[in-house]
Amino acid sequence: NLAFSFRGNEPVRRGFHSAFLYHACKAGMDMGIVNSAQVEEDVYEKIDKTLLKHVEDVLFNRDPDATEAMLNFAATLDAKSGPCALKYKEGCGPVPAAEPLFVASPKENYTSENKIAPKPASELPPVPEYATWVDPVKPTAAFAMINKIMEERIMVIDGAMGTAVQAYKLKEEDFRGERFKNHTHDLKGNNDILVITRPDVVEEIHMKYLEAGADIIETNTFNSTMISQLDYELDQKDVVYDLNKIAAQLAKKCCVAMTKKDPSRPRFAAGAVGPTNKTLSVSPSVENPAFRGCTYDEIVTAYYEQVEALVDGGVDMLLVETIFDTLNAKAAMFAIDKFFANWGQKIPVFVSGTIVDNSGRTLSGQTNEAFWNSMSHSKPIAIGLNCALGAKDMVPYIENLAKAADCWVFCYPNAGLPNAMGGYDQKGHEMAGDCRVFPEKGLINAIGGCCGTTEDHIGELAKMVSEFKPRKKHPVKDLMRLSGLEPFNYDPNVSNYRKTFINLGERCNVAGSTIFKKAIVDGNYEKALAIALKQVENGAHVIDVNMDDGLIDGEAAMTRFVNLMVSEPDVCKVPFMIDSSKFHVVEAGLKCSQGKCIMNSISLKGGEEEFLKHATVVKRHGAAVVVMAFDEEGQAATEAEKVRICMRAYKLLVEKVGFNPQDIIFDPNILTIGTGMEEHNNYAVDFINATREIKRLCPGCKISGGVSNLAFSFRGNEPVRRGFHSAFLYHACKAGMDMGIVNSAQVEEDVYEKIDKTLLKHVEDVLFNRDPDATEAMLNFAATLDAKSGPCALKYKEGCGPVPAAEPLFVASPKENYTSENKIAPKPASELPPVPEYATWVDPVKPTAAFAMINKIMEERIMVIDGAMGTAVQAYKLKEEDFRGERFKNHTHDLKGNNDILVITRPDVVEEIHMKYLEAGADIIETNTFNSTMISQLDYELDQKDVVYDLNKIAAQLAKKCCVAMTKKDPSRPRFAAGAVGPTNKTLSVSPSVENPAFRGCTYDEIVTAYYEQVEALVDGGVDMLLVETIFDTLNAKAAMFAIDKFFANWGQKIPVFVSGTIVDNSGRTLSGQTNEAFWNSMSHSKPIAIGLNCALGAKDMVPYIENLAKAADCWVFCYPNAGLPNAMGGYDQKGHEMAGDCRVFPEKGLINAIGGCCGTTEDHIGELAKMVSEFKPRKKHPVKDLMRLSGLEPFNYDPNVSNYRKTFINLGERCNVAGSTIFKKAIVDGNYEKALAIALKQVENGAHVIDVNMDDGLIDGEAAMTRFVNLMVSEPDVCKVPFMIDSSKFHVVEAGLKCSQGKCIMNSISLKGGEEEFLKHATVVKRHGAAVVVMAFDEEGQAATEAEKVRICMRAYKLLVEKVGFNPQDIIFDPNILTIGTGMEEHNNYAVDFINATREIKRLCPGCKISGGV
Prior knowledge:
single chain; alpha/beta; 52 helices
């Protein structure tokens, strides 16, 4: 239906389908009525880019002219072509490039001046004969036997152990046996343990497979690692060792018996090495993509222990199988290689990957050729695929693997695809029929069965393959084969290396990019990841990652960043170069990447022993290696030194380590030229000549280098630096240079042939050391250039360039020492009027007695809050009728799970829970009203005012009744009923629509109204205080406090309010992205009696964030964590005493004044907490420095340098103000909000501390535009990390913006123009929103122009704000009007002087205020 209007035009229609599905599936689309073949064929990433641009312009409604543009473009296309193989009609399509101008080739026979001319072959030394590496680890006899069989016939592997075990219908006691009869965890389903408890079953299964025709049977050890056995609490070394050894002995015993029956057909026991239940390339945490559930070293250790036990048990070979994450397989092969080296022998290893769907990729995203590239270093005897798919679906991927691999190939598919119950229906003969295609096409050397297969399937497969010859091994071209998610096979164009040059992106190297370095130092890994992505987009073939800097913990940063890159498919589709001068840092990076990387670097600097040790480890990791031309004597500078060191390293690598020459990359040191030092002049010539000779003398090797080093002496002058890079690469690639660490975008842009000819002449004079004065001439020429231009679009400085410039006119310098003419000199203190004494604001809303009582208690001891209502309710096992009661018995919607309704239908249950908590020691109990708003009750169709009012009032009465009863028993310990105000099920800062980040599921005003109604009913029911809790979105909390403040003002009284935020993970941020100090800055205006955190984390994880809150806040602090972290079923296992133990740190550190429990806590937990905190003193309040504290996602605390305000000047970015940017205005008028958002982002990148947003223009609906744009900014973390200035001359437009921002904003502006009544009304609303306020120097008489007017109006406004509104002086910002000078009108001439003098005086007379202005 989507592209029905384009029917008949295949590429357009199918392009729409593919792009739509790509984005819709990201949002959660599960299925659709489609042309299946086309959907498989039309891969989004392969759609023609011009077509895709048109398609997505229409798809995302980016441009009102998008459809017309699409129609025009569609008319040029061949209507029968496809979106990924687009063809144009004859005479249409891109205009072919013009024929290049004729350029004469340089002479081939260089004269003596050409210092980089190749020498005649007769003058060159011969290429050495290198000895063939001999592996010191000797192969067992099984290698020769398996190789011989696979050359002669197709071998047969057994079928599924799990399927066979199910047929025995074993019980828990079968899995326990004698050895594990008292084990504390259920063991049923742990099939591996049967080798100990029911070896008869396992042996019988093995024999059935052997009798059916299997040549190879696998040990029953798929999950026999310490890591996988942890699921059954059997992660004990002796148990895991026995599982593997006994399993191996059982399988070997069966093979020996079967071989004895027929010695002409030997049978082999294969040690099954499964993938474990962890993945090293995928984070188990949605919130933290850099997190991993276990480490590479832990996986290696687990595999080493497994392999050791399997070999001790006598296996003939190993089968590393069902690889869903290649990094796990690399860890397995690392462990196996290490074990073989220690053992001194090796047995054959089969490696089998698993592709998860018809994309042909593993779960961790690799294509199967990339998988082969990642694994080929380990030299498996055979590579294959198993599981996931049936035979038919596996064919193209086995075909691809058979082409790529230089070893034997096998497969063992499932018995077809699973049925609806997860079982397999395909019979043996049917599966054999489907598998027939593999031997028919000559693709395999072995076959077997995975899920759902039995001895019947294996028998049929054995019979079927007996008719066919096995696959023959074929030669595979010697290439350096790297991989990310996709293969990168480097096949150099030896006649023009520049054409196949590998761009090693330098921008993720802290030495190559100050922006990247700053992002890492600041912990801004999202920004760092964006830099990586940009490089791939700009043409980097490989991403170089280097963290070598004194400010950075290299190992931790490398691990975190590579893990993060691996989580972003558009980044990790390319290989990585893991780069460090510290070997442990490089190894940390290699341990995070499933692809085949380049390791940069090792050298002979530390001697041969260290070199060989490092090279062996790199080979074991499967990386290509960069070898620096360093040895024990230092860095190679001359051609001869470079050649000598690289030849020595090459000989060691190929003869002693067995390194593949294709994977050896030499960096012969690109050293800086043009330094003025004569000994540096020949460095480029030496590098180029050494490149040619190293490649000749070290066959197969590659040459790389850090290109930016070359012109380091010209840094800051872009055309010169980039000109050097382009010319150097042109000549070095002619000599055979393969790759380099470069700025990919510049390397693509700066084409040698297009470099300005004058610049090129200077560059090459230096490059080729043609002239001893070349550097000086280059410096003189460079000084005439525009340093920001490019080498192919050269610009000169004004007055420079080919035409000589006239002498500039003489201009006298102004006098430095001003005389009496200095109109902005400060006046002596004796001449200044005194600073007024301002009256203290008196809040007209009176506090209830609960304030004094709670303050007194919190000064004396730590108060206790109750535990979870939901957890307590679950224990009653209530049914639907309990939730309905009499009142709702005929309600049309299910009500079970709506716990709040129990205050009406089962008040006895709620009252009993309250009493249990009070008896356990709680001082404060919360009403059962977490979801008692109109908004939340809509889920149950109970969004009726009378129902919601009753829920809150009755809940309050119930809680109050319990507190009164308990206080009566012990009047010395008063108990308090807290009205629980939950977050609602809506969020004001996050869009529920992936397609429209500016959309919100409800409005701020709707949330405020819902909260107002709830609070009114709670107060009517008699609560002593309110608890605004589980704040995952600060804007919801701000709306709650807005409603509460409004209610208090109407009521004339106020009760204490506690506010509690929720951080969602160990980043310390709320769901809406704020840090907890930013959360405090956003909420502090509402003056809660206490601030805290609850839910989401257990106590241990909460400590640093409570510590931070305790430092930042000037009120009481509390917390109520969960009972630890949730288990696999979402429940909580931590007992009361355990939780109290974890929580002990809070009072020990003096961080809290109250504590309680959230999810999973019961009266037992509260009792233990009450007991524990009784030993400690509460936290003391401490002074907090008076500052203006703003926030975005992060806090912005303005602490001015009073001796130099310029140093701490706040840049209010003006480019999102329609009066400040015509580009921004056009974007808004055109509805191009993406472009507008990009302008906001650019401002933050360019250093804006606060973003000013103004929509005041006759062409724009200000309120709608402000709402949409602020919502959009809030959805972009790199924009909304800074605060906003919401700016308009219309108050309703400003308020619309304030209602969209969770951060503490600046509101710009109010003034006395409309009189005092309007001013006070507006100021009160701004204070209620929690914003700082800009006050314009306007009053009823007009705009202040003179110093005296500015001071008078600002003082008047200040007095009203601090005395009548209670505004924090730190949050008052005056704009005394920067007016235009230099107009030719005399009365304007003093405007600047007046502003400056007024600024000084206003700040003196209005303590704490700030000054701003439109510069």
